[in-house]
UniProtKB/TrEMBL annotation:
One of its GO terms (molecular function) is protein serine/threonine kinase activity. InterPro entries: Bulb-type_lectin_dom, Bulb-type_lectin_dom_sf, G-type_lectin_kinases/EP1-like, Pan_app, S_locus_glycoprot_dom. It comes from Oryza meridionalis. It catalyses: L-seryl-[protein] + ATP = O-phospho-L-seryl-[protein] + ADP + H(+); L-threonyl-[protein] + ATP = O-phospho-L-threonyl-[protein] + ADP + H(+). Its EC number is 2.7.11.1. PANTHER family: G-TYPE LECTIN S-RECEPTOR-LIKE SERINE/THREONINE-PROTEIN KINASE SD2-5 (PTHR47976), PROTEIN KINASE DOMAIN-CONTAINING PROTEIN (PTHR47976:SF100). The keyword Membrane applies. The lineage of its organism: Eukaryota, Viridiplantae, Streptophyta, Embryophyta, Tracheophyta. The chain crosses the membrane at residues 451-470. Keywords: Disulfide bond, Membrane, Receptor, Signal, Transmembrane, Transmembrane helix. This is non-specific serine/threonine protein kinase.
């Protein structure tokens, strides 16, 4: 697997890591350095992780990682825990059974030779490229150039510390030029000038097309007690520090702000990481080598109603229990929304629901407000009716909540979610895509479904003719009634019944017309 010019070392943690990953082939050695001309073919006999490159300590390894049982990714893994600290996350990932190959000839490239396509590349080939690839004992994967002679330091062409996935480790800077994303890209953590925030990301099909915007649901602003953030003084960045805190800097020296972990200044010296997890929460951990486990050290959001995944789209979260209810009828159970959330990125201009071809249904609800209202734009409005009208005539507005106490009209440019129970002074107005429009927005996939349904329909009609026109008529009536009940069983346009967690609007769209 190693090229002729590669140095080879034994990774002392390999056997234990592979055993914890569920067995498979046992690899005795991996390259410590890749030189130009390096190539490694993916061995599909491995069950979970196949090492290609090790750091000098044998604690970290770069290799082929099995994801979601069937998919292949390139990752830097913490071997004692089998946890991926960095992942390439290709836009079009290959199957684990695919004959993938990792090569280096100035740029690090993951390819599928059978399909003759590039799955992922570091992008180092845009310049002169690098001379070698190394994995440092910090878990930082680097493409380096020059150096190695006369004591000169190598140049860094590319490094994984500048291309984060879900996790940053201690000593790694997260700048405004980068972001943390969950693997499904539903949520992100991004730096601002004097803050960092957590966001619900729009689906890829909506970005750039209008219709759905990223929504902030948590924010931490720098207190600037020990150092001020100066306009024009350079970008800010965050870093997990060994003493147990996340610090925000504009330049090296005293931090502009810190977020203390549970073990802050407790003398715990261990590998630390901060991960944006699948539920949208930001958590920090340290590695307990004695107990061989990651210990939770910090949680950003402790209120369940502050998480977008607790109740999902078109639902209301009741604090402090986190109990969920449907936005339309406030009952627990399945069926909060009959239509898929979101659209094809074309906005919400057109007729309301109630007739075939309507773009959306209108839902009104009292005693609700957005959990993230402090991050939403608002306008002063004289009444709830005026607030509703402002949203109704706005093609990019998905909902509005009016407060009779303050006169604030909060406007939402994303489908309704993260709604919480409030007092009687709050009144909400929301738009829900109709089934007809959702089907039309699904593009080619919906067209294929329609074609299949048409073929089935023709067959049914032919067969039904033998049983007489009366039974055909009855069947059509019954089908029409059932279809209407799915979307308008009550006057608010949503199906009745118990609450069902549909996930955030991104996940709902991805499961219907926005699957990537």
């Amino acid at each position: 697997m190693e090229a002729a010019r590669c140095f080879v070392v034994l990774c002392v943690a390999v056997a234990a890591a592979l055993a914890s990953l569920g067995g498979g082939a046992v690899e005795a050695a991996a390259a410590q350095e890749m030189r130009r001309g390096f190539s490694a073919a993916h061995d599909r006999s491995y069950s979970q992780f196949e090492q290609v490159l090790c750091d000098p300590t044998g604690v970290f390894a770069l290799g082929f990682l099995r994801v979601n049982s069937t998919m292949l990714d390139l990752a830097v893994v913490h071997l004692p825990s089998s946890f991926p600290l960095w992942r390439a996350i290709p836009d079009r990932p290959a199957q684990w059974s695919a004959p993938a190959s990792l090569s280096f000839d100035g740029d690090l490239v993951l390819t599928d030779p059978a399909a003759n396509k590039v799955l992922w590349s570091a992008g180092a080939a845009a310049g002169a490229g690098g001379d070698r690839v190394v994995l440092l004992n910090t878990s930082n994967l680097q493409i380096q150039s020059g150096g190695g002679g006369g004591g000169s330091l190598p140049g860094i062409v590319w490094q994984s510390f500048d291309a984060s996935s879900e996790t940053i480790v201690q000593g790694q800077n997260l700048t405004s030029a980068a972001a943390l994303y969950t693997s499904d890209r539903r949520f992100s953590m991004r730096m601002g000038t004097s803050y960092f925030g957590l966001y619900i990301e729009p689906p890829a099909s909506s970005s750039g097309g209008g219709g759905v915007a990223a929504a902030m649901y948590w924010k931490h602003t720098a207190l600037q007690a020990k150092a001020a953030i100066v306009d024009g003084g350079g970008p800010t960045y965050a870093r997990v520090e060994p003493d147990g805190y996340l610090a925000m800097y504009q330049k090296e020296g005293p931090p502009a702000d810190i977020i203390s972990f549970d073990t802050f200044n407790h003398g715990v010296r261990a590998l630390r990481r901060m991960t944006l997890e699948a539920d949208g929460n930001l958590r920090a951990y340290y590695w307990d080598s004695t107990g061989s486990r990651w210990v939770l050290d910090y949680t950003a959001i402790t209120d369940p109603c502050g998480l977008p995944t607790t109740c999902g789209a078109y639902a209301v979260c009741v604090p402090p229990s986190g109990r969920c209810a449907c936005l339309a009828n406030a009952t627990d159970g399945s069926g909060c929304a009959a239509a898929s959330v979101g659209g094809g990125g074309g906005g919400l201009c057109g007729r309301t629901g109630g007739e075939v071809g309507g773009l959306y249904w209108e839902v009104r609800r009292q005693r609700v407000e957005p959990a993230n209202k402090e991050f939403l734009p608002f306008e002063h409005s004289p009444s709830a009716a005026d607030c509703e009208a402002r949203c109704a005539r706005n093609c990019s507005c998905w909902g509005a909540v009016y407060s009779n106490g303050t006169g604030y009209c909060y406007l939402m440019d994303y489908p309704a979610q993260m709604m919480v129970a409030a007092d009687e002074r709050k009144v909400g107005y929301f738009k829900v895509r109709s089934l007809e429009e959702a089907a039309a927005a699904s593009g080619g996939r919906a067209a294929g479904v329609k074609a299949a349904l048409l073929a089935v329909g023709v067959t049914v009609l032919v067969a039904a003719a033998a049983f007489g026109a009366y039974r055909v008529w009855k069947r059509r009536c019954r089908t029409a009634v059932d279809a209407r009940r799915q979307v308008v069983a009550d006057d608010e346009g949503l199906s009745p019944g118990p609450y069902k967690n549909l996930g955030s609007f991104s996940s709902v769209e991805l499961s219907s017309s926005f699957r990537r």
